[in-house]
Amino acid sequence: MRNWSRFLIGATLSVLLALGLTRFVGNEYFFFATYVVLQFIVLATAWNILGGYGGYVNFGASAFFAVGAYCAVALTQSYALALPLQILAAALVTGLLGFAVGALTLRLRGIYFSIATVAVAVICETVIMNWSFVGGARGTTVLQPAAPAFFSSYTRLLFFVMALLALLAVAFARFVETSWIGRGLRAIRDNEEAAESVGVPTLKLKLFAATASGALMGAAGAPFALYMNFIEPTSAFSLNYSVSALAMPLIGGSANWLGPVIGAILLAGTQQIVTVTISSELNVLIVGLLLVVFVVAAPHGILGLWHKLVARGGQRP
Amino acid sequence: MKFARTFTALRMAVAASVVLGIIAGSAHAQEKKPVRVGFSIAQTGPLSGAGKSGLLALQIWRDDVNGRGGLLGRPVELIVYDDQSNAATVPGIYSKLLDVDKVDLLIGPYSSNLTAPVMPMVKQRNLLLIGNFALDANARLRHDKYFSSLPSASADQWAAPFFDLAKQLQGKAVALLAADAEFAQTLAGGARNEAKKRGMQLVYDQTYPPATVDFSSMLRALRVKQPDAIFVAGYPSDSAAIVRAVKEIGVGDSVKLFGGGMVGLQNAPVMQSLGSTLNGVVNYHTWVPEKSLEFPGVSSFLARYQARAKDANVDALGYYLPPFNYAIGQMLEQAVTATKSLDHKLLAKYLHDNAINTIVGTVRFNEMGEWSQSRMIYIQFRALADKNLDQFRGPGKQVVVAPAAHKTGDIVPFAAARK
User: Fold this and answer.
1) For the whole model, what pTM was predicted?
2) CATH topology for B155-293+375-418?
């Protein structure tokens, strides 16, 4: 309970900080760059609910992200829905997609499940490419509306909304981790047969994790078209989202809700900096190199390494 | 006392001259502050082949303009970022260019899909943007300070000369094969419109996933329909695979015209590897070494480009994008020099009101910032040998067959040109 109070105080302070930043930071580029980092916090946290706690590696994060984005576009074009409703609708649709994909594939394990999630991404991309209402293969322009009075630009509003989504995702992941759901998912990850034999409702928990993970990924994708002022399938279904959503929890540590946050800040932050400084193939290389380094030197991520160091320090006389 | 007064006066004079010197020096430095031209261009990802050659062309322009004393007496500096061929990186990059780097002039990213996210930003901030081979990028926003470097205003204009050639060869039945991706689908839309305008029947209309490598079943299905002309809209790997499949399977005796919008058949490595397989193919291009396209300065530019191409590891010939990227620099240079200003409003007015002399010819813009006269050319590959890159350096191998203003030879029916 005390931990939750501390978390809530931290979350409230973060919301106030995000709101303050939109008022007092003059440089628009700050919001463009941090929006991307926050978006990856949501994606990585969402991936970690099924992949980190449950041990089911989803290679199709880009599909959920893009379906969320396209769902928002379709609703904007049809009904001119407001942004919060777009996000809710996208989360609902991708949550259902996660449930359907889970129901069809979660009886598969290991690499077979992962390959099935790649297939989902390919199927979704093909459908979108042939759906002319949302621009098909050519893409479509989605212009930002005028910013509400409190925000001096729409990008600042998007930054604030993504900050709220990141907090919501992290709070949800923390709830899952510390509840019986998290304990059940960890049991599934460690030994699914043993978990089943002691009465853990494995399929129900996996379906819950797939639905929640999909819904959060879709919510992260919903403002994408407004951020870009445009959407097209190649960038929305970019493999980068799938790879980063997986790499960030692995780098930060997948056992704890804080791991994906650390991984996302480190990796997405580095990518943002490298894109506008070194600006070369090195940017693409960074994810791979960091993954190799952490898999070899810190298989449990930064948090795992930290706990190891603390434990060693505690053993000293 | 007199000495002391003289000494004080002397000290004041020295101090004054030092202060004046500092002020003059700073003013001089202010004058020499570079004119910053910012843009993103793919150096990684699927667009990087063309992106790297385009960047080299702009670097050559920067060197040339700095050799001439710069713009407004100030050196030109290029601020360039790699967008990784990914449209999602573009908003952040252009915000960095405008809000952090404070560039004076902007060039768009290479290709249509990457330009789309920049358009609302420049419209909102009322900035001048020279688009870099973006097709129809200003159609929705109609920004009055957008200007295109692409010599075609729309997909219809792009496809039109091909269908004029089909008409010339008494073509009535048309087959269409297009990749399921942005550019190919846009161009296929233009092709459908142009075929319809000329009363031609679309007997086969097929799209394929961009990763397709085997086209044998599609070509067999297409042969059954006995088209007179086949229009293909594809990307480098599929364009090359289709040309190879045509050699292996054939397209039937009915076909008089084959080609259209195949990206990649302008690139030196693809042309070299396909060699004689390309004979008879009629494809779009932007520039080839034919007499009708020898605009002032283009040969000299290409000589310098080709000398640096090997070290830069870019397209050895550089006919497709590089001359037009150099021309972007010339458009900016002419406007800034004539107006003696970096004011985007004045520059845009100048570009709208005046003819711009570039190494790809004299350009006039319409109210949408597109070329008022489309200059997309169609060439026919003729008498090519295998594994010989040098054959493409001279005239006669890529004969301009359309439009009439730049024609250097008559169209030869596909089967006859392949003999």
Assistant:
1) 0.86
2) Rossmann fold (3.40.50)
